[in-house]
Design goal:
By secondary structure, the protein is mainly α. It has helices at about 10-20, 30-60, 65-70. It has one domain.
Length: about 80
């Protein structure tokens, strides 16, 4: 179920949206919906990266922690 909302945009931004959406015959609503979906995905990814970094700050990589894996990846000569 879709809901209609009102959004204020600068005229120059609206013109840019119309120009970019025009060649694809995409309407304003679809362009704004796609932009919001991408924005939400970007925020979710940024949050995952932040949590990942915090985890490594709490428990940094130990010296030689990945040595066995790296040695296993060496091709014989």
């Amino acid at each position: 179920m879709a809901k209609t909302i009102s959004v204020r945009l600068d005229e120059s931004l609206l013109e840019a949206v119309d120009a970019a959406a025009g060649p694809d015959q995409m309407g304003r609503s679809e362009a704004i919906r796609e932009a919001l979906e991408l924005w939400l995905k970007r925020r979710a990814l940024a949050e995952k990266i932040r949590r990942h970094r915090e985890g490594y700050k709490r428990r940094p990589v130990a010296p030689n922690e990945f040595a066995p894996v790296l040695r296993a990846q060496i091709w014989p000569k």
